[in-house]
Amino acid sequence: MTEAAATTTASGAQPEYTSDEMMSIAAARALENGTRCFVGIGLPSTAANVARRTHAPDLVLVYESGTLGSKPDVLPSSIGDGVLAETADAVIGVPEVFNYWLQPGRIDVGFLGAAQLDKFGNINTTVIGDDYADPKVRLPGAGGAPEIAASCREVVVVVRQSARSFVDKVDFVTSVGHGSGRGDRERLGLPGAGPTLVITDLGVLRPDPETAELVLTQLHPGVEVEDVRAATGWNLQISPELARTDAPTAAELSTLRTLKEASR
Amino acid sequence: MADIVSLADGVGELVRDGDVVALEGFTHLIPHAAGQEIIRQGRTDLSLVRMTPDIVYDQLIGAGCARKLIFSWGGNPGVGSLHRFRDAVQHAWPVPLEIEEHSHAGMANRYVAGASGLPFAVLRGYRGTDLPEHTATIKWITCPFTGEELAAVPALNPDVSIIHAQRADRAGNVQMWGLVGVQKEAVLAAGRSLVTVEEVVDELDPVAGQVVLPHWAVTAVAEVPRGAHPSYAQGYYERDNAYYEYWDSVGRDRDTFRTWVRDEVLAGRSTAEAGDREGVR
Fold first, then answer.
1. Rounded to the nearest 5°, which phi and psi values hold at B251?
2. What is the pTM of this model?
3. Interface mutation vs chain B, best among A138, A176, A186, most B CBs within 10 Å
4. What domains, with CATH codes, occur in chain A?
5. Domain containing B217: what range?
6. Predicted confidence (pLDDT) at residue A220 exceeds the cutoff of 90
7. Is A96 a catalytic residue?
């Protein structure tokens, strides 16, 4: 689905927006004020900064480059932008980020993206294809994600949804979601709860309480169940309490656009 | 006392064919000028170590300097893929590239073990992922006190580590601030070290959040203004985001890349100079 195709043309006072904007705003809403949030670059960083400028002014942003409590006034283009360090409560070395702050469970929410995601919320950012030694596509790799996914109290994934990226089983488990089903995280000894929300440009998925399989719980405005099914590589289950996402408010949109504009 | 040397002499004396070489700098203070000097001097068969092999290693890999890469995230930050890295892994161009792949937490702890003089580090990591199946340097160890099973990763002890810092004094004491990544650990873990700096000064005025490496912990210091470009040096210059976009177009194509090496590296110009020229982007 292209951005243009998803542009809502609802009548009345409803502002127009793209599916990417809806995704960023839905993700921003998922972050409660005061949450300590480990932020990946790209979509998660955009959403976290929108949240901090709307309903969650006390959101604590932690970036793996070594900043605690960054308060950037523009969207950083990399996790190490100077603005993240200059506006932080504390700047620390990278070993300290992982050993003192992430590993002991001091971070509430790990906010991650994904190249490939499966029905149990496992994330692949390593290789596409069955053969690690001879991959179809070599992706960047793990970065901080495996331990973020393991040790944050919960994980929120923000990712554009397509049948290619939403697969039955990831080609490579870079970061563990719910493994092969409910109970796997406990068996593996992973301290955090794993992915509790997957927010896409089409809607929101949550793990089933029994099986931990991702089910569609929310549709963004203008999107139908069949659109989401077509963009999912497994037989997607739909929650009986399927809800509709509220359209972005004018204030949310203007916050997002102002941030993006300032970042050019 | 660390020797104050030229960049060419520092790389010439400290980096040898076949070495395990770490260039560190986590998005900030990346020693780009030193990386290009390694290309210029035609070093080969290197095992390159770096948490985030971004543009600096895309250049070294594309130029055929490396036989192995030990890393945790290989991308062009904020832009996308590293095309030379991908070409090497997917098509063995220009030479085959062996990879040893970790997570950031694993790599950081490997440097900490190296700097600490320990044989390995433990962490609560990798559990349930496919990384241990493909990376021989991830193993499991049982805590002798609690019985918890933890990941063990061996120390990294590069033959030589190279970092970039803001300043050094004439004795070779090195001062850096802002995001300091794993640079201290990389230097202390290494057999030899080269620090490029924005400037060599008479006196190091204290700066908030500074890390100081004493002169007796550093082998050599070279003054290389703008030596971190296109990354940045806090207090000196900003990140050149346009260059990261520009690199995507250079790295995408083998011939374009070869032309870039010939014109921008072998001809003796540094990235810093190239980035300053009108129209390069």
1. -70, -20
2. 0.94
3. A138
4. 14-262 (3.40.1080.10)
5. 3-102+157-273
6. yes
7. no
